[in-house]
Amino acid sequence: MRRKVPYFRRMDKWLFLAPVAIFLIGILSIYSASFKSNQPFDQTLALKQMLWMGMGILMVFLVIRFDYFKLQDFGWPLYAVSFLLLGGVFFMSARLGAHRWINLGGFNLQPSELAKLSVMLVLSRFFANNRIEYASLGKRLLPFVIVGIPFLLILKEPDLGTALMLLPSLLAMLYLWGFSKKDFMILLFLGALLSPALFFFLKDYQKARLMVFMNPNADPLGAGYTIIQSKIAIGSGGFLGKGFMGGTQNQLNFVPERHTDFIFAVIGEEGGFVIGLLVMALFWFVVKKGYSICAQTPDRFGSQLACGITTLIGTQAVVNFGMTMGLLPVVGVPLPLVSYGGTSVLVTMLLIGLLLNIKIHRPLF
Questions:
Q1: At CA 197, angle to CA 184 and CA 194, rounded to 5?
Q2: Residue 102 belongs to a domain
Q3: C-beta of residue 223 within 8 angstroms of C-beta of residue 208
Q4: Burial level of 226, CB count in 10 A (0-12/13-18/19+)?
Q5: Residue 11 domain-assigned?
Q6: Total domain count for the chain?
Q7: Closest CA to 103 of 89, 87, 113, 117
Q8: Positive or negative torsion for Cα 67, 69, 73, 74
Q9: pLDDT at residue 2, as a whole number
Q10: Rounded CA gap, 238 and 235, in Å?
Q11: Listed residue (46, 65, 62, 54) closest to 20, CA to CA
């Protein structure tokens, strides 16, 4: 008998190493963005992020060991837990005017990150078990209900950016399910009708961010301040950047939220066009690999799950790049594996682990 090859030797090494490379660039940027003189290294945000990444890598090696088909049984229970946690955040103390975290001692859990994973699992199971040609109108509407419940809860926190990230994955999975051009045209029409109504449900600061998108100088010291400083930082980096911890916009605290949502401004200023392009290329590589796994997986559950995960990671990266460079409105979306945040790192590595798992365990027919 032939000896069975261990899982870690069968996994796609490049799909594993690309996220690690993204993280390494991010950890240097977090250290630079949050640096305080005379602060011991064991108290820095960079060390905390490294610990979360260590746990994330451990999760990858655990996740690839079991057959992803078994995840179908965990979709709805995880969805129910996410629902309870999303409701629970409203009983927590507000931070920066938002209810997004549940304090678990030394760790702040962000349920919206867990909700994204649960939605991917439930949608993948639904699309795998229901063929579109036999689906009634009620079943065709069910995916929108599945996404709509966490969408509204996350929007209420408020966290517009994370809520919006659920929609591209839904659309991509609907396309893979077999939605026609006519169906998408109807969705586009309904979206255009509902978007003005949705605007009135936004908080004042969210409305201001959208209003200054076309002209940040309309409120340069208010809603437009962050994007103006971010564009200055990225532009001043030039081709090769100002070097590690050499960015003036960063070190002089001109860029707000520079260790979270606007960390790409730090990368652009200190690493320049070269490192900024490298980060984009690494994300492109991960997305390309993810869609390749989706296309080459014959079972519908694995293919749908790979599609949803890949679209989620890719959309978050594109939106973050766009908003830091002033190409998209500021919606508060972190850059996966780069922005500071324990829950985000763990969930993103779990998603990477699932992609690796699908490639290892997918049927070979």
A1: 10
A2: yes
A3: yes
A4: buried
A5: yes
A6: 1
A7: 89
A8: positive
A9: 41
A10: 6
A11: 54
In whole angstroms, give the CA distance from residue 176 to residue 183.
13
Name the E strands within the chain. Answer: 102-104, 107-109
30 and 267 Cβ atoms separated by less than 8 Å: no
Q: Which residue has the tokens 């905390």?
A: 48
Extended beta strands in 180-258, E state = none
DSSP E strands, 250-289: none
Q: Rounded distance, CA 145 to CA 136, Å?
A: 15
In a domain, 1, yes or no: no
Residues 260 and 98: their CA atoms lie apart, in Å, by 16
Yes or no: say if 340 and 45 are a contact pair by the CB < 8 Å rule: yes
Distance CA 136, CA 152 (A): 25
Expressed as residue numbers, the domain containing 342 is 7-36+51-361
Please give the full DSSP string across 113-142, using - where no structure is assigned: HHHHHHHHHHHHHHHHHS-GGG--HHHHHH
Average pLDDT over residues 231-242: 92
Give residue-wise pLDDT tens across range 94-103: 776 677 888 7
Amino acid (1-letter code) at residue 88: G
List the helix and strand counts (H, then E) for the chain. 14, 2
Look at residue 67 and tell me if it is in a domain: yes
Query: What one-character-per-residue DSSP string does 206-272 give?
Result: HHHHHHTSS-GGGSTTTTTHHHHHHHHHHHHTTTT-S-TT--HHHHTT-STTTTTTTHHHHHHHHHH
Per the model's pLDDT, the better-predicted residue between 196 and 219 turns out to be: 196
Cross-strand bridge partners of residue 98:
95
**Cα dihedral sign, 291-286-143-124:** positive
Strand partners, 109: 102
- Taking the C-alpha atoms of residue 343 and residue 337, their distance in angstroms, rounded to an integer, is 10
Amino acid at 365: F
The CA distance from 312 to 329, in Å, is 18
- Give dist(CA 184, CA 188) in Å, integer: 6
- In residues, how long is the chain? 365
Q: Strand, helix or coil at 102?
A: strand
For the chain, state the CA radius of gyration.
21
Model-level pTM? 0.92
Average pLDDT over residues 269-292: 96
Nearest to 269 by CA among 241, 232, 240, 245: 241
